[in-house]
């Protein structure tokens, strides 16, 4: 592996304002419309066609000079969140989790309920520490014992403000960090959305490139499945994030990827239950990084998986790879990532697609 020296790519190319907008725009699984609008705005003058399919996937096609080959880039637009499940007689809300959320990080967060009447602010209330027993303080309260306080005096008033089924997002700020890093919510996977948009803007190839913003990845890889079946590309790359273990509390062998050391090329995820990257895809990505002096990291993962796992299984099988941006504190409202890693991800994918197009 190599590490490219010299002037920062992030200083030269990275659009922090777009990244900020992507992170601060809300869209839990099944409610990705506002992110889809950003895809359309950013790419309407870049690609030849934009289509929203029946699932809500955004399929942005940049036609090549030849009918073959074709390449699909997939990044999920959804973020984890909550949903109103029940309104009690006193006007407090009970909720369900949408996607993988650690109960520990929910308590006392402020949230926004996105209702038909407009956004409503709430707080996940809890028993004050003054009257919490020593035994209670040792335990993580399960989410189904939590509630959301929206200031309603009773059920009738609460029902005039929100409804069962309304999506809920956790409130967060966006902040720029030193060394071209940033903090915000939903970096998983708005970082991938940014990569797809920028690759389509920058790539110059004879291949046809499909940039797809997929839906409902966090709850079962649903959008990617139908989009890949429809497009049946010759190659596919899923763009996502992965655990960056370079902080206290994580052992190096648990999460060896390091923020700032370049994109992660996934060899296996979910212990092989997810994707096992085909040799020709693995060789293409590694050789592209080496030939162009682009830093990268390799990952054999035992944890979660990505859209790549379902894309590879469509039709007769689609050669698929996965790029992940190393990110600290994934699935929390305060993830941290590196713009330099994102820029290196874009460059590596652009070079790989151009290599495919010249075959």
Concise account of the structure shown:
With 359 residues, the chain is of the alpha+beta class.
Layout of SSEs?
Blueprint: H1 9-13, H2 16-24, H3 33-43, E1 49-52, E2 58-62, E3 70-76, E4 81-87, E5 93-98, E6 110-115, E7 118-125, H4 134-137, E8 147-149, H5 155-161, E9 167-170, E10 175-177, E11 181-184, H6 187-202, E12 208-214, H7 222-231, E13 235-243, E14 264-268, H8 279-291, E15 297-300, H9 307-311, E16 320-328, E17 335-338, H10 339-357
Parallel strand pairs: 3-12, 3-13, 13-16, 14-15
Antiparallel strand pairs: 1-2, 2-12, 4-5, 4-9, 6-7, 6-9, 7-8, 10-11, 11-17, 14-16, 16-17
Rg calculated over all Cα atoms: 21 Å
Main sheet specs: 11 strands, mixed
Number of helices: 10
Give the class from helix and strand content and strand pairing.
alpha+beta
Helix percentage range: 25-40%
Strand-and-helix sequence, N→C? HHHEEEEEEEHEHEEEHEHEEHEHEEH
Number of strands: 17
Description:
Helix 8 (279-291) packs across helix 10 (339-357). A hairpin with a 5-residue loop joins strand 4 and strand 5. The radius of gyration is 21 Å and the shape is globular. The longest helix has 19 residues, at 339-357. The mean pLDDT is 95. It has ten helices and 17 strands. It is 28% helix and 26% strand. With 359 residues, the protein is of the alpha+beta class.
């Amino acid at each position: 592996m190599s590490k490219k020296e010299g002037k920062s790519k992030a200083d030269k190319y990275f659009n922090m304002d777009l990244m900020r907008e992507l992170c601060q725009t809300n869209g839990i699984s099944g409610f990705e419309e506002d992110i889809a609008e950003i895809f359309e705005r950013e790419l309407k003058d870049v690609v030849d066609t934009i289509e929203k399919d029946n699932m809500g996937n955004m399929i942005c096609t940049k036609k090549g000079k030849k009918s073959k080959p074709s390449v699909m880039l997939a990044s999920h637009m959804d973020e984890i969140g909550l949903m109103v499940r029940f309104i009690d007689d006193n006007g407090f809300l009970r909720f369900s989790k949408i996607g993988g959320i650690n109960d520990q990080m929910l308590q006392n967060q402020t949230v926004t309920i996105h209702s038909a009447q407009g956004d409503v602010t709430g707080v996940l209330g809890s028993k004050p520490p003054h009257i919490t027993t020593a035994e209670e303080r040792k335990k993580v309260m399960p989410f189904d014992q939590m509630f959301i306080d929206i200031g309603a005096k009773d059920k009738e008033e609460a029902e005039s403000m929100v409804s069962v089924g309304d999506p809920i997002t956790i409130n967060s700020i966006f902040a720029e960090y030193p060394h071209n890093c940033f903090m915000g919510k939903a970096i998983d996977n708005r970082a991938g959305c940014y990569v797809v948009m920028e690759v389509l803007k920058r790539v110059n190839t004879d291949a046809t490139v499909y940039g797809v913003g997929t839906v409902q990845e966090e709850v079962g890889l649903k959008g990617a499945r139908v989009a890949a079946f429809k497009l049946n590309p010759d190659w596919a790359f899923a763009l996502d994030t992965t655990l960056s273990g370079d902080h206290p509390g994580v052992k190096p062998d648990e999460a060896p990827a390091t923020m700032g050391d370049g994109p992660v090329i996934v060899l296996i995820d979910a212990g092989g239950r997810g994707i096992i990257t085909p040799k020709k895809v693995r060789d293409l990505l590694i050789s592209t990084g080496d030939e162009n002096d682009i830093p990268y990291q390799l990952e054999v993962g035992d944890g979660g998986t990505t859209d790549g796992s379902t894309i590879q299984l469509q039709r007769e099988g689609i050669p698929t790879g996965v790029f992940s941006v190393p990110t600290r504190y994934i699935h929390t409202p305060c993830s941290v990532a590196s713009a330099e890693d994102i820029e290196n991800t874009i460059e590596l994918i652009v070079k790989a697609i151009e290599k495919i197009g010249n075959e």
